[in-house]
Amino acid sequence: MVVAVPPETFPAEHHNRPYLQQEASFVNPQVLALCPNAEGSCRQNTDELEEEDLVLRIEAGEQGNIPFLVIRPKLQNSTKEVLRRPVVICLHSTGNSKETMRPFMRAYVAVGMDARNDGDRGRSPHAYANALVAAWKTGQEMPFLFDKVWDLIKLIDYLTGRPDIDPQRIGMMGISLGGMHTWFAAAADPRIAAAVSLIGVQSCGWAIAHDQWHARVASIPQPFEAAAQDLGKNEVDTDTVAAVWQRLTPRLMDFLDSPHTVPAIAPRPLLVHNGEDDPRCPIEGLAEVVFRTAERYKEAGALEHFKFLAEEGLGHTVTAAMGDGAITWFNKHLRPESTV
């Protein structure tokens, strides 16, 4: 049982070598150029930027502590007046940590958060996989999507109370699983003023119906293998995959699937950037998502606030152009004169 506690924030230990359960192999090396490595410190541009390593406690228990990193420009004015700035929350992929998002944390105030069972919340080789298996077995937690979206809502509660953050200009971006968290959080929380999902948007219902779930399952095989065994099957099949999705993320294959939840972000600015040949996010399964979302933005008189890109010849990979595109999107929609 999850026990909520009064939220509190306290300093966290800074890590030069954050714990990773997986290497971000699908991220282009150009994007990772600013990531921490064994030879260097995590910190960068210390003459221009200042950092805070913090923990937000929202629940009792180990996963109730949210480690997060705040990077912001140093005060330049002589009066040291605290200016309210836009903030961009940057969300990492499966098995990674907030520190791996540093290449994207280069505008405004930037915040990186360790997802449940990753980074400082999962300091063992199989923490995330074990959490997914436990969720299948017990159904008591939802560590794949919903619990993480709840964390993001509580993090936004904290950020809106900071004197250096403009609560009307909160952006969020994520890659892969972080891109899924971005789409669900933006659909659930209207305080997110602009969003960018990189190689994250997909249709689980379409994948089940068209037998195109294999690449996604291969990225996190453990809960599906456990389910197949529990269901008396010799191998993972379509029924097994559907059962796991229903257990871990109820209704993900129907009214919480992307054709229904991505349009809910309208009319707020949304950039979706995928690879045309991404087997985890099959492009054929996104036709209905893109159509419904564009229709919703058109109805709201804000079609220019929605952009979908499918990069030709690209698989499940994040490129430097995607990172630059995300920053350009936020520059356009979170700048002071923006009405969003």
UniProtKB/TrEMBL annotation:
* Pfam annotation, one family: Abhydrolase_6
Give the SUPFAM superfamilies listed for this entry. alpha/beta-Hydrolases
According to the entry, every stretch annotated as the AB hydrolase-1 domain falls at 88-318
Alphabetical list of InterPro entries matching this protein: AB_hydrolase_1 (IPR000073), AB_hydrolase_fold (IPR029058)
Species of provenance: Ceratodon purpureus (Fire moss)
Protein name, per record: AB hydrolase-1 domain-containing protein
